[in-house]
Write a sequence for this structure.
């Protein structure tokens, strides 16, 4: 068992792990290098489901400057019946205007054509530099080439084709309760300075009656609970595809656990990250307040650098919470209401908690620290 | 003319600068070392107005974890008739509970006693490490000693007594239109990791009929328009005192200019800062949206590191704006709507602008960049 390695993720009972290259039954994937990445690494991937009866759900960034592939998914795809996904890394195709939309559509249509499925059954996802026109001919050619190398063991190839500055692939294939789940994710790196993007693709032969609400719930407990630098990407995309061919339902908690572990890997692999933290806010007046306080603490550069410096500095937690509660009456916080010891510990995953004493709502957020390497990655590179 | 050195600050007409040690007529100040700073530098200051008829205004942080001196000012002082200010640096007396309130009151009462004025005519301000009980005996003794060295030329001594990791004193004395204005500020440093705090004190012999609204307006255009790390302090305090002895009104724009230049010095001297930026947001749907977008851009670590790296990365500006507009309909931004060239320039003060095309509201924010030195200051020190 090597996938579930975080203290914050409960391992579902009876899980058996497999080689993550092996996709869930009915899925095939492939990847090639089309030229977007100067390094020669794979940069175009294609993933498809052989079964027509696949049901799916797709969640997309809410950033108002959403990238072209996000807009294409939102406006031009049948998100409940996604058969295939075409991806590239190296160019986010974001802030590229009408031409960007045409390019993302061309990528989608090329995948649909080569796979012989309807255009609207293909989702597109891209990550990399922004504001640069997509080398569409190369990408379209790449999609066609990727179609020639589709394989049931193509999971890892597909996962590597979405990597940017990720330290390694974030992936899993597991069996539990008679169903198989495979998943690939990337984040929070970049091939060129742009901004962190997270992409995640999940395939299963489980029967999922309402994939949209299942995915929303699992994402709310995983990718929506993490922050690296507080910056919402223009390209975030999560795709869930379920064939139902196993005839079994997904055991409870499995999708949540898979997505949570992947999300925690994104935090651990955040740009320059050395340590991860989990801030638990209790005793908030309401849910919105709990969220606000948790995110203010998780995104505070002073709390992040305290985590880096192993400085059990509870005052920075009190200050960030007080900022989130600005203008409200609040009893002076003190060390008694803040559990901050692990901030100063050597543990790679530090637990921090604050009791606000204002009510009964609570929230938690996972976050990465802020290091010299983050500055180096983001300041010392010039486009 | 050395004070007004920012391109963003208009110099009021007819201004003459003096030695900033010399306070406005009717004010005296002094400072001593009481032991809070290990370096032996001055850490307690006292500033007083000899005239009974002084009118004043005091603005305080809205942080819900406000420090004891802030609570004492708010709850126990007559903010419209402040004669004197007692300050210390080295201990913020924040998150120190009921004992902190007693300590801040003791400091205030000692100043009132030695000056022979009512307790409620003395404001207190503190800055430094938080969560550590104040060495009250030492501070009270310091206040009494400072009273013995009060001088009309004590402005610089007072200003140095509020410095923490400031690179130098932020101060001015000027004459314009028959009135004299002196001011001292500090920020955004710290004596020990805690968080940045800004303090500012302004003295004048001008006649100011409504000092509270005058100060609010000037602060709204200066200290409320800056960000170093997006962290609202527990201790921010601005005090304006006006004797009216010149018999003249403050010429229009002078208070604004003095506070803006001081605020810009805080940005330029922000922890680790190498460059400052000014983001101008135009075409927002309403004022709240303009503010939200401007602050999202100014506080984005990706925009800040782009400023550090002289990377004219307009995509990071589009992404941050899109995050602030999350969930809204927005036409794809492009380089045509973003004026970002100076982001890549060598200029110490870079102008950046974005046209949202959504309406007619606008806002601007001044911000510092994010450098290795910020990480070093905040991560490599352990309390």
């Amino acid at each position: 068992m090597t996938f579930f390695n975080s203290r914050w993720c409960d391992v579902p009972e009876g899980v058996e792990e497999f080689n993550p290259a092996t996709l869930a039954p009915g899925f095939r994937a492939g990847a090639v290098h089309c030229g977007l990445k100067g390094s020669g690494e794979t940069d175009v991937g294609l993933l498809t489901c052989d079964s027509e009866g696949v049901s799916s759900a797709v969640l997309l960034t809410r950033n108002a400057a959403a990238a072209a592939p996000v807009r294409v998914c939102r406006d031009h795809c049948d998100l409940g019946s996604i058969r295939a996904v075409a991806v590239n890394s190296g160019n986010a195709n974001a802030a590229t205007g009408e031409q960007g939309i045409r390019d993302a559509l061309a990528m989608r249509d090329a995948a649909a054509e080569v796979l012989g499925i309807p255009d609207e059954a293909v989702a597109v996802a891209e990550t990399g530099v922004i504001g640069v026109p997509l080398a569409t001919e190369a990408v379209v050619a790449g999609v066609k080439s990727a179609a020639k190398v589709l394989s049931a063991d193509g999971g890892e190839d597909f996962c590597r084709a979405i990597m940017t500055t990720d330290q390694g692939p974030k992936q899993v294939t597991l069996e539990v309760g008679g169903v198989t789940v495979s998943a690939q994710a990337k984040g929070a790196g970049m091939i060129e300075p742009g901004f962190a993007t997270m992409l995640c693709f999940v395939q299963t032969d489980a029967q999922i009656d309402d994939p949209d609400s299942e995915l929303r719930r699992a994402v709310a407990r995983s990718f929506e609970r993490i922050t690296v630098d507080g910056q919402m990407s223009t390209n975030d995309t999560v795709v869930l595809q379920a064939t139902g061919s196993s005839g079994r339902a997904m055991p409870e908690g499995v999708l949540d656990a898979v997505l949570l572990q992947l999300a925690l890997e994104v935090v651990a692999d955040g740009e320059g990250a050395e340590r991860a933290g989990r801030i638990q806010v209790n005793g908030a007046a309401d849910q919105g307040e709990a969220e606000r306080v948790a995110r203010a603490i998780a995104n505070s550069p002073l709390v992040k650098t305290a985590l880096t410096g192993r400085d059990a500095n509870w005052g920075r937690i009190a200050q960030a919470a007080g900022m989130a509660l600005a203008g409200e009456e609040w009893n002076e916080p003190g060390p008694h209401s803040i559990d901050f010891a692990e901030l100063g510990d050597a543990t790679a995953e530090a637990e921090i908690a604050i009791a606000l004493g204002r009510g009964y709502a609570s929230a938690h957020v996972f976050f990465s620290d802020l290091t010299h390497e983050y500055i180096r990655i983001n300041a010392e590179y010039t486009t």
Observations:
- The domain at 276-379 of chain A is CATH 3.10.20.340 (Ubiquitin-like (UB roll)).
- The two ends of chain A are 41 Å apart (CA to CA).
- Chain A touches chain B through 68 residues (CB under 8 Å).
